[in-house]
## 1
Amino acid sequence: MTLRQLMASTPLHVALGFAAMGGWAMWANAAHGPRAMLLAGLVQGAISGALTLGLKRSVDWMRPRFQRAPGYWAPPLIAICGSALLLVTAHGLAGTPEIAATIAVPLAVSVSYIFAYNILRQRAAARDTRG
């Protein structure tokens, strides 16, 4: 497997999202004891893995439906709003003590990731169209 194939691997993106953001959530909730820490890590890890997959797929689906400039910002913005709603709801239901601290880094990473991904895909589509 080449580095390019590895970087495009959806299972790798999902696994890294689970590990990195689940680890962050554990750290953000460490002051509340091992149960809260572990639960926050598992909830955030599972959501981050699923969101990585969902963000990519939803933006790929929306991108062709927006013309010109809105195609660069609307699909990722819509996807991130949905992600934020899901994160707040899931952590609220799970009883995560530090919701804002728990989702701040994953949401910031998701925003950076999905906007960069969408811009790169939008530019590639424009190049393919031109020839």
## 2
Amino acid sequence: MQWRALKYFDTVARCRSLRQAAARLHIAPTAVSRQIDQLEHQLGAPLLERGPEGIRLTAAGELLAEQARRTLRDLERVEARIADLQGMRTGRVAIEAAEGLVSSLLTPALTDLNRDYPRLEFDIAIASAGGVIDALRRGDTDIGLAFFLPPRDDILRVATAGLEHCVVMAPSHPLAADEEVSLEAALAHPLALPDDSYGVRQALDRAAKSRGLQYAPSFTTASLETQKALAMAGAAVLILPAMAVARECQQGTLTAVPLEEGALERARIDLCIYRHRSPSPAVQTCLERLETALDGRATRTGGP
């Protein structure tokens, strides 16, 4: 099976459109179609079904798409290793990260890394802790950076750090003038929180239960930008590490007040990889830079 045909098919499977796939690959749609036809002939099974709503993968196509994604990622890692042997710091690094870690931690680290190694390429996606684990297992990402990553035998924590939680609100909010906020006081106000698949929500649920407190968020959204917009509008308060809203606090659009000490377990940041996959030189370089960034931004707590 030719690498080119596999790459073309993977692009079609992601786009679900021959025209869009061809545009992304910078070739003619007929060239993509020809490669797909060759794959179908080689495998003896149809891979695509064309309909009025676009392209749909057949059962055989779904199987090939899953394998193609892993195979292409493995080929990229081999290419990066070969390039490194030749003294060329090239390669692609795929990262899945919690949204609250992007602007203050991930972006500065990758900016510095790109300055030192301009030939590196980065694919960045936003995911919950569970999404990070799934992507690492599938081989869709090389590095995970998440809050409260649940322990898994096949996921290796490279570094772990802790951050204190804050209550985040508009500067005009009644709580904004306090030096610290109790959990009871925070829960008495309308809240904007992610759903219970996120670690901060699970930690809050545990803390409320241990104190016999009941609460129901007024807004449930996984989008950090939506949470921040609600807080800026005065519609809700948030419970986040200050790092997640550092830019907005500097601009004066939000205020972060420490949550009372011991009210909520610290937000644990986990930098992780898949245990049974050796990182390429490019991934290893990125890991080292992110580990340094963690050390500089938070108090190191260690990890298994």
## 3
Amino acid sequence: MQDKPSKSRPPFSINEDRPSDWFEPLYSGASEHGDGVPWANMETHPSFAKWLKSNPLSGEGQTALVVGCGMGDDAIELENLGFAVTAFDVAASAIDFCKQRFPDTKVEFLQADLLQDQPDWHSAFDYVLEIFTVQALPPKYESQLIKSISEFVAPEGTLLVVAEVSDEPRDFAKGPPWVLTPDHVSAFVAAGLELVDTTVEAADAHVGQATYVSAFKKGPAGAG
């Protein structure tokens, strides 16, 4: 029988000072069907799919980046929309699953850490997709993560952020996940983006009070 998690620490073995280390053991113990990965949908994320119905995209001649791509389905959705897609995850086993599941794709699946600088990706992507990645890392890294994600967006490019949200203060002892507060929207704006719109969806009771789907734009080169 599994021990009951302590109320003073997350249920997973997570070192707050090595916050990315818990992903590889999780994915290496998972199945190709996503068993063992709590957030694996094995299809386009439902909030992203719903957003696309109201905001059709054509990616012909454009680049896209998927942050924390997991099992790869959202990257494949963007490829199907015509984008040249790069998708990364910190877990090498996640990237292996992506390549196994989609052997014929042209998506560039890469192992990379969002907490490490990626200078080749600065201002490089016309469309950036981030779903549940910021909330999967401890709260003390929120500002760094938001800054890094915002820097990936090319001038006049778009960022879509899907996040579970609660009014409760973020606390390391309460995660994972460390659901965001509504303030994450203004934090992306402070990082140099313009808010286009936010859709608020009802969320499962155990993962916050709502899901926010927020679209941002970056201004033209030299603006601001």
## 4
Amino acid sequence: MDYFAHETAVIDDNCIIGKGTKIWHFSHIMSNCSIGESCNLGQNVVVSPEVILGKNVKVQNNVSIYTGVICEDDVFLGPSMVFTNVINPRSAIIRKNEYLKTIVKKGASIGANATIVCGNDIGEFAFIGAGAVVTKEILPYALVVGNPSKQIGWVGEFGHKLEFNKQGFATCKESGQEYQLKDNSVIKVK
């Protein structure tokens, strides 16, 4: 076994779990899911069948990742954040054939207690603030907060808010990386 699982974790058959991954207390990894290398799944995490987690995904305590969710590399899922997978759930009506796909793109962060309504993809390096309720697609590098979530700015790959000048350029205060805002899209300047 090339990964660590706490003795209280339950790992079903037919899972792929990458080298160096850590699975902590009372977590349940269900069959037919795929977890990449160097991931960290906190206490009381549920990974449902057919979920895909890329490399270096950090899942904080009390997160359920339901069928239909794909997280690319370097995604951060904050404590108690929520994914849905059916748009109109009812207890008496089975809708397992109606699960909607949600893709969280590379480097995106989702804050504590945020809710991602199914079918709404999160763009690369987007930053979803704590408690936000995402009801539509989120652009790459977008900073969104609130209920329903609204975009209030842009962030760089290190997670700092970008302040664009009149020419449409901004520099990350930590990495020094320059970005350009053009046609409501952020790109890295080489």
